[in-house]
Amino acid sequence: MATIVPQIVFNPDGSVGIDDLRVPEPAASQVLVRSRKTQVSAGTERNTLELRRETSEPTGYTSVGVIEEIGSGVSRYSIGDRVVTITPHQGAALVDVDQLTNMDGYVGMIPNDVSDSQATFAVLGDVALHGVRRAQPYLGESVAVFGQGLVGQLTTAFAVLAGADPVIAIDVLDERLEKARVSGATHTLNARDSDPIETIRDLTSGGARVVFMAARDP
């Protein structure tokens, strides 16, 4: 039997609405996940909202929920499993677990000691973590992170954990810079108060070895 759930959408006139979404019964390789929490990625969704569109479109890409139904061919998941999925802001979603090479088929089991709210950061954490891994900052090497939104905060924290020093956080909002200091940033710069490039050069004897751009506008 199909399930009717609410879904947040961006409308052509730039407004945000809630539509009814019909979610059918799961096929053999699908699971139906009832959402508990979804994560708002402010930068991505703000950019998406400003795009022109002809029809209403769903938004969001990380949800935490509980598997409520499973298809006849699903064996590695059970009803009641708590999982994180790559799905929009909506009350429930079908996920094809045979499409594991596709982000649309991602179903991640959540450890018992991780809360729903913490688990919603899985995808953003993945973005930041892989950025730091690819950059490979060595122990004691300098890192600058422009932008201290969600991805920037996580990037700063991972750079600190990787042993980078100094780790310089740059933003235009003091409250974000305060959070960056909690995450371990050795220096914080408000780009409205001074030229961050010159300050970074002074702090690093010429320039940071690794620079991350996590700001909406360069």
Overview of the structural elements:
This protein has 218 residues and is an alpha/beta fold. The chain has two domains: 3-114, Medium-chain alcohol dehydrogenases, catalytic domain (Quinone Oxidoreductase, Chain A, domain 1, Alpha-Beta Complex), CATH 3.90.180; 123-213, 3-Layer(aba) Sandwich (Rossmann fold). 26% of the residues lie in helices and 29% in strands. The protein contains six helices and twelve strands. The strands form three sheets. The protein has a five-stranded antiparallel β-sheet. Strands 11-10-9-12 form a four-stranded parallel β-sheet, sandwiched between helices. α3 (122-135) crosses α4.
Helix-strand string = EEEHEEEEEHHEHEHEHE
Helix content: 25-40%
Can you tell me the number of structural domains?
A: 2
Q: What is the arithmetic mean of pLDDT?
A: 92
Structural class call reads alpha/beta
Major sheet attributes: 5 strands, antiparallel
Number of helices: 6
Q: Care to count the β-strands?
A: 12
- CATH structural class of the largest domain: Alpha Beta
Low-confidence stretches are: none
Question: Main sheet: which strands, in order across?
Answer: 7-3-5-6-8
Global geometry: elongated
CATH second-level architecture of the largest domain: Alpha-Beta Complex
What gyration radius follows from the Cα positions, in whole Å?
20 Å
